[in-house]
Design goal:
272 residues; alpha+beta; five-stranded mixed sheet; five-stranded antiparallel sheet; 5 helices; 19% helix; 30% strand
Length: 272
């Protein structure tokens, strides 16, 4: 079994936030039904991009086009896992998917847990699932620890999207049941070696502001696992080195404050 994060492609259309705090779209989505309190709301376009099957809205609140939703209903791909809440984007019908399937399926013995000073759960530094607690046939779900910010999908959903050639998602694998602890240890060794190589022979170091100016001049800059550069369209992108040694790229809506305090150095640009 393989599990992926529901993550958008950089080419997916981006929708703007709804300013009306009273509308249920701005409430917490923790698995409870919203349909009885729902009214259609219009979302403006924040960034017009090529892929429109899965427009990018808020994390934890996936959106689909009408044609994707109808195909899902026709084939029962997400039956009993989501409810479709109608929204619009100008004159286009869209649907926000409220994921109602919340599972308790984390393998705490293998996951790396970040905790507050009092010992309570704070975050997952490494997330490992217990596949025996994920019902057969599952396509999309959330976990009880992070229901408001994370949506996960299975290989079944990924294959369905790819078979229908729907565009707008970039599946980021977070779990593979066939990935043994020995394989995991070797992956970590290679990851640590890659970070060491990035930091070797840094040359001159720059503040974030200086590094950002150099990026606009065509340079690629790195700080540990973080990297920033312009893509082939001239857009500023920020990447994080993953354990498989690929970069997970995004066009950031904001810059995490921790990155503003880091020192940066020049590196070779990625082809993106």
């Amino acid at each position: 079994m393989k599990i992926y994060r529901f993550k958008h492609d950089l080419k997916a259309k981006v929708l703007a936030s709804v300013e009306d705090d009273r509308h249920p779209i701005n409430s917490d989505f923790h698995g409870e039904s919203k349909i009885n309190e729902w009214t259609v709301v219009n979302l403006e376009t924040l960034k017009e991009r090529r892929y429109i099957d899965f427009p990018d809205y808020h994390i934890g609140k996936p959106v689909v086009s009408k044609r994707v939703k109808e195909k899902m209903e026709e084939e029962g791909i997400l039956a009993s896992e989501v409810e479709f809440l109608p929204i619009t984007n100008n004159d286009t019908e869209l649907f926000l998917m409220n994921v109602t399937k919340i599972l308790e399926c984390v393998d705490y013995s293998r996951s790396d847990i970040g905790r507050f000073k009092d010992g309570s759960w704070a975050r997952f530094n490494k997330l490992v699932f217990d596949p025996s607690k994920i019902p057969h046939g599952t396509c999309m779900f959330k976990i009880k620890e992070t229901p408001g910010v994370q949506v996960f999908v299975t290989e079944k959903f990924k294959q369905w999207v790819e078979e229908h050639k729907f565009k707008g998602l970039n599946f980021s694998q977070v779990y593979d049941a066939d990935f043994t602890e020995e394989m995991e240890a070797e992956q970590q060794r290679l990851y640590d070696a890659a970070l060491e190589e990035i930091g070797r022979n840094k040359g001159q170091e720059y503040s974030y502001e200086e590094a950002r100016e150099l990026v606009d001049q065509g340079e690629a800059m790195a700080s540990g696992p973080w990297k920033m550069q312009l893509n082939k369209h001239g857009q500023f992108v920020q990447g994080e080195l993953l354990k498989d040694l690929s970069y997970q790229w995004m066009i950031p809506a904001y810059i995490p404050p921790v990155l503003l305090l880091k020192s940066w150095h020049k590196v070779k640009k990625s082809e993106i």
